[in-house]
Specification:
The structure holds 2 protein chains of 2 kinds.
Chain A: H1 2-6, H2 11-54
Chain B: H1 2-8, H2 11-43, H3 57-84, H4 87-119, H5 127-146, H6 152-166, H7 169-179, H8 199-244
Classes of the chains: A mainly alpha, B mainly alpha.
Chain lengths: ~55, ~240
């Protein structure tokens, strides 16, 4: 296990590369999903308001 | 291609197709990237010259491929928006830019991390590195321009023109390693005379690249759906403002 983590002496190159990739790609996924959820909420509220104003 | 774009141009049809494609893309992305990670980190042998730093390639190269693929898609969408005025093409291009910027950032940072032990420097202004940095700025420019106008369509048009003009950078990136004497090594997979990389390293690279492509589809579908909602929100808010007035 220690040998695996050591990456032949290049741990400081290999692990940060995979870490940065994960943070950026998963970060964009989470950001996009949150933005989608927020917009869905906003849209639902606007449509409900529109419905109410049409059928008071 | 135009007929495919025409058939996808209706938001309702897009939603239908997207609902079918999304779960498959999500499963493929998870499975392929999961397999690719284990393969690349555990089973691939260290390179005889680069040692274990070669493992950086399994995230760097797919990210670099995706950074260019994403731009090519964005350029085609922009042409379609400029010529046929497909609103969905504009939304898809807007949805693409941050994805492309993310893949380009990954390629730049991982390349830089790998460069330090291999080349002795994090950065060199050689043609490949510089043209990829330009690609990153093109994505940022697209994101800034598309939101720079109160009129959404004007912003979309300006960004689309930038995307089309900027497409000239794609062949420059691809052939930079042949046209100029770069520190970056020449292609070893996408070559006219076939890959020069050993199959024990090629296959995990291809699996990872397929996983990144599926992940790109997942991100793109989520972000287009989100852009469709943003447009609908804008329309409703305008109606509300008009009714209020």
């Amino acid at each position: 296990m220690a040998a695996f983590l050591d990456m032949g002496g290049y741990a400081a190159t290999v692990w940060p590369s995979y870490g940065v990739t994960a943070v950026i790609l998963i970060g964009l996924l989470v950001f996009s999903l949150r933005q989608l959820a927020k917009r869905r909420e906003q849209l639902d509220a606007l449509e409900a308001e529109r419905e109410r104003s049409r059928n008071p | 291609m135009p007929s495919l774009l025409h058939s996808l141009a209706s938001p309702a049809r897009f939603q239908r197709i997207s609902a079918h494609v999304f779960p498959w893309a999500a499963v493929l992305a998870t499975g392929l990237i999961g397999c690719g990670l284990v393969w690349a980190l555990v089973f691939v042998p260290p390179d005889y010259q680069q040692g274990d730093t070669v493992r950086v390639m399994y995230v760097h190269v797919p990210a670099a491929w995706m950074s260019m693929f994403c731009y090519a898609v964005m350029a085609v969408l922009s042409v379609s928006f400029l010529i046929w005025k497909h609103a969905l093409a504009d939304l898809a291009a807007r949805a693409s830019a941050p994805i492309g910027a993310a893949f380009t950032t990954v390629a730049l940072i991982t390349g830089s991390l790998w460069g330090k032990p291999t080349w002795g420097t994090y950065w060199e202004w050689d043609a490949r590195l510089t043209s990829v940095l330009v690609l990153f700025f093109l994505y940022l420019g697209h994101m800034a321009l598309s939101n720079a106008f109160d009129d959404r369509e004007r912003g979309g048009r300006a960004a689309a023109i930038l995307a089309v003009v900027g497409a000239i950078n794609l062949p420059i990136i691809k052939f930079s390693v042949e046209w100029w004497n770069t520190l970056h090594q020449p292609a070893s997979v996408l070559r006219m005379d076939g890959p020069t990389i050993h199959s024990s390293m090629l296959w995990p690279l291809l699996v990872m690249a397929a996983g990144f492509t599926a992940f790109y589809v997942v991100l793109l579908l989520i972000r287009i759906r989100s852009e469709l909602m943003a447009r609908r929100i804008e329309v409703l808010q305008r109606h509300r403002a008009a009714e209020g007035a």
